[in-house]
Amino acid sequence: MRTGKTDCGLLYAVKKSGTAVGYCSLSIRCGTRDEEGFHSGIAHFTEHALFKGTARKSARVINNYLDRLGGELNAFTTKEEIVLHATVLGEDTFKAAALLLELATSPTFPKEEIETERGVVAEEIRSAKDSPADDIYDAFEGACFEGHPLGSPILGTVASTRKITSKELARFCAAHFHPGRMALTVVAGEDEARLEKKVLQLAGKTFGTAPAPAALSPRVLVPAPFRTFDVTADKRNHEVNAILGGMAPSLADGPRRFAAILLANILGGPASNSLLNDLLRERNGWVYGVECSYAQYADAGLVAVSLGCERQNLDKCLRGVDDVIRKMQENLLSDRQLRAAKKQLLGQLAIASESGESQCLSMGKSLLSFGRVATDSEQRAAVEAVTAEDLRDLAGSIFDPGRRSRMVYL
């Protein structure tokens, strides 16, 4: 892998793959938490609107540009980033990368296209509301971070998106879309020196060779509020949904962050032998699915256990979750259990890293978060360094009965 920063401030990373497929992504340090002074949901609306036209291409041309090459073009918005990414044949990788940069640097936001897309965004918001599992997580995270920029919903609201105009979209991009806040990553089947040369040429063509403006202000990080609550709402859903969790290490908290990753995987990772999956689903059949997620942000983190079940099973499920967590808080994993948990997580990470798209997106996230991309050996060492005491102590702090929060949708 080769990484670096261009004269204009653009971060980049390139990696050689062993396939005929090329992957590229453009990550922009600009998400929901950066919407102060704008209508809620504008970051997500911007992600949609970037595809509606540039100074050189219409929306129709953009939609067909990679399709006719057999490729895929997509995007997503998080609390902290907007990410554009593409998958194409290796020979077309830099056509795709050039398109991503064009979308981010010369959008035109045609009024008629924006009006059409407004309806698409509104339907996405309504669809999320119709999914109880998605709706309760958004509400839970919003309540945990109430009063903090991380508490804003990614999608915004139907009412707020109705107020977003082409002029406001342009103003939002002008405020945040600068090369010094971007990371371009490429995974393709060429020599890395050649990939790096092409990235530098593309960056120069797009931004010129002038240094990044010194006046660019960094993202302001403010401590996330610590808020606890226990809320039950009658949603009259067929399935009952519940979520509970607490504040966790941020991206800046290196060693404890890897302990939180391992803890979440042990409690409710994707494997059927995770503690909560084993108890609630495999042994008792009380749930279709249960998971423990770990959201990592620049200045905060959130570990949450979420599940859906029939109403008559709710109390049994909640007691089961409490029992599993209490054992993690009171007992140390044996050496054998700890080795097995680490091997499972490292195996999952290794398998995920085989995906060129996952590699590309992960590289972009790492560049924006840390200014570098950790090697596989560094990640393995960080996981191996986690102790049984680390896991017990972290379970105790995150799920402390006096500090954790819970939300139930009946």
Detailed description of the structure:
The chain is α+β, with helices and mostly antiparallel strands. It contains 15 helices and eleven strands. It has helices spanning 42-49, 59-65, 93-105, 111-129, 132-144, 158-162, 166-176, 192-207, 254-268, 275-283, 314-330, 335-352, 356-370, 376-384, 388-398, and strands at 2-5, 11-16, 21-28, 72-77, 82-89, 182-188, 230-233, 240-248, 287-296, 301-309, 405-409. A six-stranded mixed β-sheet has the order 1-2-6-3-5-4, sandwiched between helices. α1 (42-49) packs across α7 and α10 (275-283) runs antiparallel to α11.
Question: What is the structure about, briefly put?
Answer:
Helix content is 45%, strand content 19%. It is of the alpha+beta class and 410 residues long. The protein has a six-stranded mixed beta sheet, sandwiched between helices.
